[in-house]
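Case 132 in the screening queue. Each case pairs one protein sequence with one candidate compound; here the compound is heme C. For every case the pipeline is the same: read the inputs, emit a complex structure as tokens, and attach any notable structural observations.

Predict complex for case 132.
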Amino acid sequence: MLKKKYFILPVLMSLFLVGCDSLDPEEIRKRQHFPGKDFVADVQQGEALFVANCSRCHGPAGLGTGQGPPLVNKIYREAHHADITFHWAVKNGVKQHHWGFGDMPPIKNVSPEDVGHIIAYIRQQQRNAGIQ
Ligand code: HEC
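Case 132 output:
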């Protein structure tokens, strides 16, 4: 019984890898809610997009409100919350796990490129606050 399991696992894994191989890299980016490969982030655009879409909970400078946590906080430094966690937060929402503010809902009408600009703004705010 145990032996069978060990045989099936590598077979399944190789099928999975073959499946991935045939996916177009642009398609993978889209599925992950990532901007296209030629995307260049802009901090100023990021600030405007953040204020319009995120500040009601995270505060206009990312310092938090009564509705949501500060993103300018060492919990959200790049080594602990990589850029992909921002893309997934916007696309899928976030279940409450670090704080007591409740869940973050998915944020509609914010594109992967918009999130790319927002990340550039938040990373700059973090650097300015001495958070690396
Ligand atoms: C309705 C309130 C609300 C809005 C609007 C909102 N957030 Fe959040 N967000 C939250 C809350 C609450 C949490 C904390 C969840 C926890 O960890 O307890 C959170 C957590 C996050 C996290 C951490 C994700 C993780 O993996 O832990 C990121 C990144 C984030 N928000 C980015 C954004 C961005 C970018 C926007 C705007 C496009 C945005 N949020 C808009 C409420 C909000």
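Case 132 observations:
- The pocket of heme C is lined by residues 53-54, 56-58, 67-69, 81, 85-86, 89-90, 94, 96-99, 101-102, 104-105, 107, 110, 118 (CB under 6 Å).
- The mean pLDDT is 90.
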